[in-house]
Design a protein that fits this description.
The complex is a heterodimer of chains A (about 475) and B (about 625). By secondary structure, chain A is α+β, with helices and mostly antiparallel strands. Chain A is built from 14 helices and ten strands. A five-stranded mixed beta sheet of chain A has the order 3-2-1-5-8, with no helix packed on it. In chain A, strands 4-10-9-6-7 form a five-stranded mixed beta sheet. The longest helix of chain A is centred in the N-terminal third of the chain and has 52 residues, at about 125-175. Chain B is mainly α and about 625 residues long. The chains are: A alpha+beta (about 475), B mainly alpha (about 625).
Chain lengths: ~475, ~625
């Protein structure tokens, strides 16, 4: 049995090797681009320093052999005392670069080819078009920036003027023997003004910014509809309470200021009123709790035999999706097998793994129930897909799960929002390290036909085994 | 009780030789320790605020270079660009400082120390020596935390919640090296300080009340401090345990919190068998009560300040005590709402959701009682009163968004987004800071024997409340658009571009808020030396601390400790000459201080109905 296991492991590795080499004989910029997006973009950009340094003209700065060595294991180079490596490490505040030992020399050279092409491409037509739009954007940004800073300066000036005026008034008051500026009266008027302007600002906020929230375009998943209605109920209830209590607070502050003539009402308690305002919140909250529990339960305890199983694998700093393949059974995993040839630590003894498909984008079929299984390699991440009202932490050693059904394709959402370049995203929402803020995966919701076409274009983990199985079944 | 205090007083007078060191540095006098806590807290708070301004600059202008950063931060701000790792370090230390060093030690440490002996009528704390130790552990802890800013790899950077494995594995982030070790050391010292203080507060409140100071006559401040101290005593040890296990995982190769981590990533030893979620349970078992450890003292201070300045009894004294107790108890069974989407059993999520939303009921009762206290009051809008009103406003705004986040279903899309940042900065950050400010303005005459400048106080208030709302209110909308917190920049996401202007607006408002605190700092420190001399009872308040002489002396009262004949809220009582009757004034014909016939809130319900009619 052991020998069999061993054998299957070897064939697995060889098969993976073969499938890799076959597709990667040529070092092309095209190939490099997809490798770059998958492996480098989380920490590097071409023209600017992000987490790591800008990569523009890196092919001129360093020799190819050095780069290959560095990319495969930068720490080894630093430890061996390579002067450039040591300086580079120190210049970047000793931030560790991930080792990419799984990338072949040819793959790395493809990436360099891509960087070279990008470095030399600034004059190309699409680039300039892009730049002009950024210039326009920068202009408007500059303009609003100026307005903001003007407001700031005006605010400071106002404060200074007020301070001077107050000072003068106090002086005059001292000369006349009675204070001119009555803070009690001033504050009570300011409280009222704050209430009016503040409430105005709150409504303006809702008017101006709710269109930017994910709620404006509606939910892109089945359970999201339920989620949104729960949200609206809470918004209305809390909104009413917010307005009533804030108005009363500031209004009382205005109305009951001391005037020197009145005495306060001695009114220490009233059990009837207190009972009332204990019971009413309790009832409102009971409604919210019951409604919330129903929603929560419906979202969490979803079981569907036909759901398509997909594993989301998180690592510093990127995502992979592993599709269960035609058998809809995800191969088991074993963290001890995580390594150069097996980034995801897929259990090589498990036949179910052979037809699994690993990708860098998450494609889902519309109206098809999905079981997402989450697994992390190193630290805790969190997979947030805001448009679908989906989020689940991705915890090393603790598999987690979220089931849902997407209902709006990417194309439909683009039309709905009027943004032709819109894409769904899955982003990391649990602090996980320096490039946390760039750790994302594109999510595409396809129609059935599109999905079939896309999944067929992806290669399974161990192609020859799967074909052999298929032949045997026939 | 008073006999014991009297005896103690005589003893004090026998060896009453103060040199500089025993008076100002290793002082065992609770009033001096309160000042030490306050000033250390203010210094730490200033540091935490400056940090927030640096990372706010980064968030508003992710593409811009600020050459001064290189001068301030050295290699972390090379070419005027903030390093992403140091950004994470800044948010981590900002959170740690604000939550623990300012709002726990600075708020509860200051006012528990100052007010407990003075308001219950005791000569000093039950154990002045432990009280002194409590401060010096806190001081040591602050030093270790500040020192960690300068070590190789930078300070801890895993967020103030320091979730492992990120915080456990130095390979995961540079800050998880020496910086994290020092963070844990600072935390251990801090917990020791909190426990030494807490035991003392409880012992003093329960055992050293003066004659007539029944539990039902305690000012609400003292009730709040009592429940706060109990919460701290029950929950801080759990964090200590959690921290120790994390120290083991980091330094001795254990795997309490680590599971399925390959050897290469975990310092050469394969780690498996533990659970990262275990740490979250231990952390939040402290972490949630911690929210109330911060908030309850602020609410207690507010109750006192509002009643005094509204010249009205606090409405529903017993209901207020009831809600403090209810909040205290419930705070221990809601910690799981921080973990709805960690993959824990959904049923467990339901239980925590139930508990969380129930806690809204006592919170609502408190809010309504504040409103009822203001109603038909005779409001003296002093700076302290303004900050107290501000607290109530923030408590409402931030509390209501808690109803979204406490709902497990809604939390799915809101967890860890800017919505959460907005929520806790309003309800816990701004509200508690406003409570602290209210306390400082109100008890400054008691702390330093002088008055603060009132005009500067009012300007400070208005700028602070405006900037706090401008900073935190818009953040809700970013959260609703799915913008995650703790992002160094949002530039990698096209759909977050719409918030470029908002981020800039928030940063400018934050700078304005920071500038407003300069007014406060100047007012605070100048008034120590230049402020007007404080009168005996500047706010015409009922509580016992105002019967003690303005000049500080060991043992608080020169003669016998005053006896207490009534509750603390006899303001504007019909038939009395003044609109306040201090607690040490007997009713007509009342001989025994313990006598219940007058001055108790119970009997007033009927009477006040008559007044209304």
């Amino acid at each position: 049995m052991k020998i069999l296991n061993q054998l299957s492991k070897i064939t697995f590795v060889i098969a993976v090797l073969l499938s890799l080499t076959s597709s990667l004989l040529a070092q092309s910029a095209e190939e490099g681009k997809s490798l770059y997006t998958a492996n480098c973009a989380a920490c590097h950009a071409i023209n600017e320093k992000v987490v790591g340094p800008a990569l523009k003209d890196v092919h001129q700065r360093r020799e190819a052999a050095w780069l290959v060595k560095w990319i495969k294991n930068s720490q080894a180079m630093v430890k061996s005392g390579d002067p450039i490596a040591v300086k580079l490490y120190a210049d970047n505040n000793n931030a560790l670069m991930t080792s990419f030992e799984s990338l072949s020399d040819i793959q790395i050279k493809s990436i360099i080819a891509y960087i070279k092409a990008e470095s030399e491409a600034p004059a190309a037509a699409p680039k300039t078009a892009g730049m002009s739009t950024t210039v326009v954007a920068a202009d408007t940004q500059d303009w609003s920036s100026k307005v903001n800073w003007m407001l700031f300066i005006v605010a400071i000036l106002l404060v200074l003027i007020i301070a001077v005026v107050i000072n003068i008034l106090t002086r005059i008051g001292q000369i006349q023997g009675k204070p001119i500026l009555n803070w009690n009266a001033t504050n009570s008027i300011l409280l009222l003004a704050f209430l009016v302007i503040g409430m105005g600002a709150v409504f303006w906020e809702f008017y101006a910014h709710s269109k930017h929230t994910v709620f404006s375009a509606g939910s892109a998943s089945e359970h999201g509809v339920e989620y949104d209605s729960m949200f609206m109920i809470t918004l209305i209830l809390t909104g009413v309470v917010f307005i009533i209590t804030q108005v009363l607070l500031f209004w009382y502050g205005f109305k009951y200021k001391a005037d020197g003539k009145r005495k306060a009402l001695y009114y220490p308690d009233n059990h009837k009123i207190e009972l009332l305002w204990t019971i009413i919140p309790a009832i409102v909250l009971t409604v919210l709790v019951i409604r919330g529990l129903i929603t929560w339960d419906a979202m969490m305890n979803k079981k569907d035999e036909k759901a398509r199983k997909i594993e989301i694998f998180a690592y510093q700093f990127g995502w992979n999706a592993r599709y269960a393949g035609t058998d809809n059974k995800l191969g088991a995993h074993n963290f001890r097998e995580v390594g150069v040839m097996n980034q995801l630590g897929v259990d090589t003894n498990d036949v179910n793994a052979y037809d699994d498909i690993v990708t860098n984008e998450l494609h889902l079929e519309v109206n098809q129930p999905i079981d997402l299984h989450f697994r992390a390699k190193d630290v805790i991440h969190s997979a947030l897909m805001p448009h679908f009202r989906v989020q689940m932490n991705v915890v090393p050693g603790l598999p987690t799960k979220f089931s849902f059904t997407p209902t709006v394709t990417t194309a439909e959402m683009r039309t709905k929002m009027g943004k032709p370049e819109f894409d769904y995203i899955l982003l990391c929402n649990k602090i996980c390290g320096s490039a946390h803020y760039r750790m994302k995966m594109k999510v595409v919701i396809d129609t059935k036909a599109e999905y079939q076409k896309w999944i067929k274009s992806q290669s399974v983990l161990v192609a020859n085994k799967v074909n052999a199985n298929a032949v045997a079944l026939k | 009780m008073s006999d014991h205090n009297l005896h103690h007083n005589q003893e004090e007078h026998e060896h009453h030789e103060d040199n500089f060191i025993s008076k100002y540095i290793f002082s065992m006098d609770h009033k001096m320790i309160a000042r030490q806590f306050l000033i250390t807290g203010i210094i730490m708070g200033t540091l935490g605020m400056l940090m927030s301004l640096i990372f706010r600059l980064q968030l508003a202008y992710p593409d811009m270079k600020f050459p001064f950063l290189e001068g301030v931060l050295g290699h972390w701000g090379k070419d005027g660009k903030l390093d992403p790792n140091f950004y994470l370090a800044l948010i981590t230390i900002h959170g740690t400082i604000m939550v623990f060093y300012v709002l726990t030690a600075g708020l509860s440490g200051t006012f528990s120390n100052l007010l407990i002996p003075l308001q219950v009528g005791a000569r000093d704390m039950a154990s002045p020596f432990m009280n002194m130790l409590s401060y010096w552990f806190f001081f040591a802890s602050s030093c270790v935390l500040v020192f960690s800013l300068f070590v190789d790899g930078g300070p801890a950077s895993a967020g103030w919640t320091v979730y492992p494995p990120l915080s456990a594995l130095p390979k995961a982030i540079p800050g998880s090296g020496t910086g994290m070790t020092l963070w844990l050391a600072a935390m251990v010292l801090f917990i020791a300080s909190a426990l030494l203080g807490g035991i003392n507060y409880i012992a003093t409140i329960l055992n050293m009340r003066t004659t007539g100071m029944k539990m039902t006559r305690l000012p609400l401040t003292i009730w709040a401090f009592l429940v706060t101290a109990i919460l701290g005593l029950l929950s801080f040890p759990v964090l200590l345990g959690g921290s120790l296990l994390l120290i083991f995982d980091r330094s001795f190769g254990t795997s309490f919190y680590l599971s399925e981590i390959v050897a290469e990533f975990a310092g050469g030893i394969e780690r498996t068998g533990g659970s990262p979620i275990l740490f979250q349970h231990l952390f939040w078992f402290l972490g949630h009560p911690e929210v109330y450890i911060i908030l309850l003292p602020a609410l207690g201070i507010t109750s006192e300040v509002i009643a005094t300045n509204a010249r009205k009894p606090i409405f529903g004294y017993r209901a207020m005590i009831g809600s403090i107790l209810a909040i205290g108890i419930l705070s221990f069974i809601v910690w799981g709402h921080h973990m709805f989407i960690t993959g824990m059993n959904p049923f467990l999520g339901s239980v925590f959701m139930l508990g969380t939303l129930i806690i809204a009921v006592p919170s609502a009762v408190k809010t309504f009682n504040y409103l009822a206290t203001l109603w038909k009051g005779n409001l003296h809008l002093t700076p302290a009163m303004m900050f107290a009103i501000g607290l109530v406003s923030f408590f409402i705004s931030g509390g209501l968004t808690g109803i979204y986040l406490g709902n497990a279903a809604l939390d799915i899309n809101l967890h860890d987004t800017y919505f959460v940042v907005a929520h806790f900065h309003l309800v816990m950050g701004s509200a508690a800071i406003f409570g602290m400010m209210s306390g400082i303005y109100h008890w400054y005459p008691k702390l330093f024997g002088r008055m603060m400048n009132e005009t500067a106080g009012h300007i400070h208030f208005w700028l602070t409340i405006i900037s706090a709302y401008c900073v935190f209110f818009p953040m809700h909308f970013m959260g609703l658009a799915g913008v995650p917190r703790r992002y160094y920049a949002n530039t990698a996401y096209d759909q977050f571009n719409v918030f470029v202007d908002m981020n800039e607006f928030i940063t400018i408002a934050a700078i304005l808020g920071g500038a407003a605190q300069l007014i406060f700092l100047a007012n605070f420190f100048l008034s120590i030396y230049k402020g007007k001399r404080a009168p005996q009872n500047p706010w015409k308040s009922n509580t016992l601390e105002w019967t003690a002489p303005v000049e500080h002396l060991h043992g608080n009262w020169p003669g016998e400790i005053p006896h207490v004949y009534r509750w603390a809220y006899d303001y504007s009582k019909p038939g009395a000459d003044d609109d306040f009757i201090p607690q040490n004034v007997p009713n007509a014909g009342q001989v025994d201080p313990m006598d219940e016939t007058e001055g108790l809130p119970v009997s007033h319900g009927v009477k006040s109905d008559a007044v209304l009619a």
